[in-house]
Amino acid sequence: MPPNRGNDLPRRGAPYSRGGPPSSGPYPRGGPPARGGPPPGSRGGPPTPGATGAVALSQWSAKVPVGGAAHVTTVAVRRPGYGTLGRQIPVVTNTYPLTCPPLTIIHYDVVINEDEKKLPARFNLELVERMQSSTYKEVFAASPGVYDGRKNYYTAQPIKFPDGPRATSGRFVVPSDAEPAAPGRPPPKMYTITLKEVARISPQTLERFANGEMSHDENVTTAITAMNVVIRMVPNLKYPFNIRSFFTDKEMKPIGAGLEVWRGYFQSVRWGVGRLVINVDISTGQMFARGPLLKLCTEMMQEAVGQNRRIDANTLCFGRGFDERMRVLAHRQISGVKVINRLHKGPGRNPPRLIKKVLYESARNARFKLKSGEEVTVLDYVRDTYNYQLQYPDMCLVEVGSGAKLPIEICEVIPGQIWKRQTPPNQIRSILEFSTQKPPDRLRAIQNSMSILEYGQSKYLRAFNMKVTEQPINVTARLLDPPGLMYGNNATIQPKDGAWNMKGKRFFRAATVENNWWIWNLDQRARLDNIVPGLVDAARETGIGRWNLEPLVRQENVHNRPQGMSIVGKLDQLFQRCCQESQTRSKPHILVVVLPHGMNNELYQTVKYLGDIRWGIPTQCMQAAKAIKANAQYFANVMLKVNVKMGGVNVIPDRRSVPYLMDASNPTLVLGADSIHPTPGSEMRPTFTAVVSSVDTNVSKYYAQMRPQDSRQEIIADLADYTKIAIECFKAYRTRIEQLTNNPARIIYFRDGVSEGQFEQLLEKEVVAIKEGCRRMGITPKLTVIVVGKRHHVRMFPGRPQDADRSGNCPAGTVIDTEVVHPTDFDFFLQSHGGLLGTSKPTHYTVLLDESNMKADEIQQLCFSLCHVYQRSTRSVSIPAPTYYADIVCSRFKNHFEPGILTNLEHGGHGTQSITSGGSNRDKKVTGDLLKTWKQQFQMPGGSQGRAMYFM
Hints:
By secondary structure, the chain is α+β, with helices and mostly antiparallel strands.
């Protein structure tokens, strides 16, 4: 059973943003003419209002025409109308009404010390706040401005610059420290802050945009950005923050590996229909653990090396195992961390200092000169100055920003430093446990956050005349009916609360094993006595016939192998031996592999690579700890994966539930696309893109394609090729298996992973590429493009206890397409899965193109239905199945490389050079050479294995 996607931590993709210059592509802003719907308001209509406190839908729908005024251009499809299907239920959202009386927003560009390197955002904030609250208080007293910590400063009234009333820029000199220098110490450094007016935003901009009376342009973007800076100014000055969230240690938990997690608060100004709202949510921040630097460093190094070597204080000491390799490892873990000297006492400040590097020196041998000219060791200086004898005089030192060399054991990590690297795998469970909250608890925490957000007390909100109503917006949602699902022998199931039981049902089309299957036991402690019968029984129950009770069984210790032989060689040798020893002297129809307790990812990837790529057979891995329990439900879930890997189909939607999708006279090809980018620090790794495509009339069987492309490029470069191959596979399957010859008349393209700011690029490049792929095949199907968004913070909570499911969440099928959606674009929020743990997250759908002119109800029902045919589950999932498949294919890119190759590639191996800093032509050539090498080493399954859903 898959995880509850609605509770996952965000995986990737840019945060919500819009704007930028008008499109320079082939279409004017608003995209190709064909993607628009009929005139606004021509179909559908809003449902009647429900929940107490909700704005009367008749009021705002009368004020705001469906799809906006006729002259307004849109990036996405104009809203064709409101959905009407389903039972109406009241829903509470985590959005709050925001009012802002008409005012002119003045935008200033900020430069701090033109020749200065980039300074930390928090330091910049403190400088600007000191400028307007202290050093130049008389200039800014009338209307304090707000600052984003980088380049943008906004005010509600023009600044009266010292150069006169007509001046539009000015310079302000501000000290680095609010306190005067102590006697005997140098004065604080002075910074020059230059403000230059760059724009003024009309008072009516946001009101007209929210009412659907004007197009989205740079003025709207600037105004929204300014208001976000206003609401974040107070917390950003008080707490650790990232772009949209800040964090407090009122609720925190140490999780090991040198980390602790803090409860945080997300807030963002966004548009609703006819008004602006603030979206408030709970978030989780990972921090470097406070306390002794030595403890932090050893814990993080231990996490990095795993259990193969014990890391303690002695590891960092010369003569006890410390070498250059350990120095580099320690440097990677703690460089950039701010520390204080815990021995500091007496007058003067003890400011935090940034660790620049770990040195290959110890306190015993590192020497420096005192002001008197005397040369001393760090060991002697610490003893004489602080009356402290170092416990580890042979431990390496750290160099801090001031150039000083400090012993690790006297350094204390200050709290509140955000961890910006990839989350250690062993800590994910602890983070999820901390961040998971039941819906009532999460809603209560959001409402209680008003005292921390301090909207009513903020002088910045008062300066901009902004007021927040501290009662969440209630919305009338609709509960869609789930689709009927068909299994073998025309058996139909009706899901309830996002789940169903297929007991007594057989797969819609079962694969056949023909008594030729193997099982390898790679766990030395696991016994197969109950595993083999459990698999055979599950296969018989689901219709996968002829699994004999005496498969070819081999127990193998992959770690017991000759010196110089890799795990790949060991397994390859075992495979060849089994082929000779099997009764048929051929490959098996399915190879089941029992992995050792505490499944090793490297071993799993090796098995998948060999099975999918080298041997060309389906492989099914099972964890020994679960398999030996011989649970019938576990083996039934295994069969869900086995059947589709062998070419079968588990379940299809009932044609009556989605007639548009399964119209035999207008065959529909469904595409799902996603991309995965390198994690921070993985500069030598490309981006991988994946496209899965349906091949059958029932849109339940999919073919996968994946390729590497330029690093961190979101737009899919080879989409025309992907599309052409998808159409070829569609036609081949229909001709060979279904004995039908139609070309696809419609293509529905579900795109995951793109932010709102990339919508125009997607229309100008990916839509054009899909049409080019169709042109190469000589067809012109109608195209529908739907963006599937998961990186948002909108949540929905049941307005009445009787409308909640067993987890306390809104039921599967809850859809919102009014009030808190876009003023003009066709978007909606759909919670398609039943809750399991915590608060479920709805998926945000935006229709960018619809040449078939579908109604709102049709598209919403289409998306909901495709969330029910995820083949390895008997629960609906949070996103349409093709999008989920593309996500899985992307995340398993490592399985497509021979084990051992990736390490070399990520370090520029195989004859390539390392990428250096800068942007020279040489660097670009190296990047191209490296990408070429990645492509050469990347392999996709071939033959029947490539045509099956091997990725399940």
